[in-house]
Amino acid sequence: MGAWTPEVEPTPIAGGAVTLVEGSSFCICSPGGDLRGVEPQGVFFRDTRILSRWDLHIDGETPEPLAAMTPDPYRGTFLGRLARRAGRTDTHLLVQRDRWVGNGLREDVLIRNSSAEPAACRVSLDVEADFADLFEVKEGRVQARGERRVEEQGERLVLDQRWRGNHRGVVVVAPGASLAAESCVGHSAGSVRYDVVVPARGQWSTSVLVQPVVDGEDVEPSFPLDRPLSVSLPARRRQRWQETTPIATTGHEGLQRILRRSQQDLGALRIFGSEDPSLPVVAAGAPWFMALFGRDSLLTAYMALPVDRSLALGTLRTLARHQGRTTDPFTEEEPGRILHEVRLGVESGLALGGGDIYYGSVDATPLFVVLLGELARWGAEPQQIAELLPHADRALEWVVKHGDRDGDGFVEYRRSTDRGLANQGWKDSWDGITFCDGRPAEAPLALCEVQGYAYDAYRTRARLARMLGTEEEEREWDARAEALKAAFNERFWLPDRGWFALGLDRDKRPVDACASNMGHCLWSGIVDEDKAPAVAKHLLSPAMFTGWGVRTLSSDMGAYDPVSYHNGSVWPHDNALIVAGLMRYGFVQEAQRVAEGVLEAAQHFGGRLPELFCGFDREDFPEPVPYPTSCSPQAWAAATPVHLIRTLLRFDPRLPRNELWVDPVLPAAFMPLRVEGVALGDARINLVISTDGAVVEGVPPGVDVRHEWRGARRSE
Fold first, then answer.
1. pLDDT (tens digit, 9 = 90+) per residue, 348-370?
2. Domains 18-229 and 236-275+291-324+343-662 share a fold
3. Cα 655 from Cα 647, distance rounded (Å)
């Protein structure tokens, strides 16, 4: 099985586990802070588990967990106490572990003694590193490989692995400790020990640093021991993010918490590359997708435009840098194609003939063009658009030539080898595309939402041509868009069902399942006006709408399972696009109903929407049921509340035409709402929403604010 084929469910993360994340590094640990060598716990760096065990003991005992706090996404504080011992009537030692995750890990251990006499104890950390690839851990198939070595070097404990030319390692720096290398089959292991006396009514503390090693070179730590934590790069980036992103305040406490959490998570999921560290991209989600994904990163950047425009620019530039140039069946690279996923682990390259980039996505390429057009509408600098336009044209060339395999005008996919993804749309599980009776559809497959993305990409390119004054190009792309729209509404519409087919299979038969994908078709605008009411009706029907959101698949379908990944679950980002589509076609009450359901679900998840949750009816259970292997935080789930609020505000910038449309239909419970510091062109504007309407402050000169909504993007 190739590393890119998700035919095995990820290993479930135990309830109460704590996830810390900074860029592409993350840590999954127990509520007490330990890593106990149990899947899938560990500290991960560049898709490799550099710590598989990190257990703290006091005199051989594990402190009893009291609390776990995450004041920042990359920082955790774990409080514990020693369990009562025989012969003792009380516990006097409180253990505090402060942990920071970045390029490796830093942990400060503080022990407080509340008794009237000094306490002698041995503090020990058991350390193991299995250097397992992320995919192995995710799928629960870790195996020992290569040559292991552990040695003591003064205050440094060095653990490493060499296998097939790959050299991965980790260094534990523990000033003042006694270090011991241990023999452990299949792992590199050792221990760090301190024999200490904690003063009466006093405390003892130490700091330990875990530093990754790649190809024999120590990686610069994010939180070095000799510098204040406040000047670390993650802390400075975090502070800049908080200072430069908009501030939303509302009288609705739940919504306030949700928007704050979304902002924090989007900031934490940013990845800064070495080629252009000034512009971030967004990783898809923790714990298993802390990497650049084409589709996920593009849609997240699109939905997060009100929060930070640089995410869109950074994502576009990074994807353009890796845009396909040649044809390679192992990685599915093709000229102009936008990548699906980047991986840096050992196994990813082995699974794909030595490559670490996989291109097997059918929708990332048209979405690249869609995001570029949206960035232009928000007032990006003309030279930024100009530098990316050739990449958009190469992407469109792929859509027209490589994407349309048989020349019928529709964009299809079929994997090049048995190692690639069998399904290459956003529902990319092996059984994600099925007929009404539950049979999986066979490729080549033309998905309904992908035709919508292609239509939107054609319309976007026509608008960009209009901006540049190239009328012939504008007419060409508009004509292509209209031809696709006409063909789509003829071939995909199922008049006897009243919904659009999920796709066309290899024999051009409609895949007749009723699925959420057609909501994306509303978002893109490819649906004919006369068919939109039936689509909206089905999306809000009891078979599709759970009360918490729209299911991925109708409960009337043969493949329906509310606890499946793509066949009946509820995905927040899916619903965000559905809400935008409903609003686009004028179904205001329906859009409000879905948006409120999703935001109410977020409150049951502590203000943080997960990647997905189970598709049970709200009448059956008083709370949304978590999906066992859902990512959290996850990028497009984090961006979902932002996009829902933007849709309910009917906030639609069209700066190339010097227009800004704002005509809110925000539910009364969410008002008043004030948003300060939204970047629009070269200005930062404030929005004040109340029952009296909308007030926009700080509008760029010459921009006309219009409050009479005519449908987002429909008048162009």
1. 443 333 348 999 999 999 999 99
2. no
3. 18
Question: Looking at 155-285, which runs of residues are DSSP E strands?
Answer: 156-163, 166-173, 178-182, 188-198, 203-214, 217-218, 247-250, 270-272, 280-282
Report yes or no: 455 and 524 within 8 Å, Cβ to Cβ: yes
Q: Per the structure block, which two tokens stand in for 368? A: 């690249």
Using one digit for the tens of pLDDT, what is the confidence trace for 446-466?
Answer: 999 999 999 999 999 999 999
Class of the CATH-defined domain 236-275+291-324+343-662: mainly alpha
Q: Domain segments of the chain: what residues?
A: 18-229, 236-275+291-324+343-662
Whether this model's pTM surpasses 0.70: yes
Residue 100 · residue 223 · CB < 8 Å = yes
Place of tokens 């934490």: 268
pLDDT digits (tens, 9 = 90+) for 535-587: 999 999 999 999 999 999 999 999 999 999 999 999 999 999 999 999 999 99
Looking at this protein, which amino acid is placed at residue 490? E
| Beta pairing class for 659-662 and 704-706 | parallel
Assigned CATH class of 18-229: mainly beta
Distance CA 387, CA 317 (A): 9
Task: Enumerate residues 6+ apart whose C-beta is below 8 A from 27.
Answer: 18, 19, 20, 21, 35, 42, 43, 44, 76, 99, 101, 105
CA angle 231–234–238, rounded 5-degree value: 95
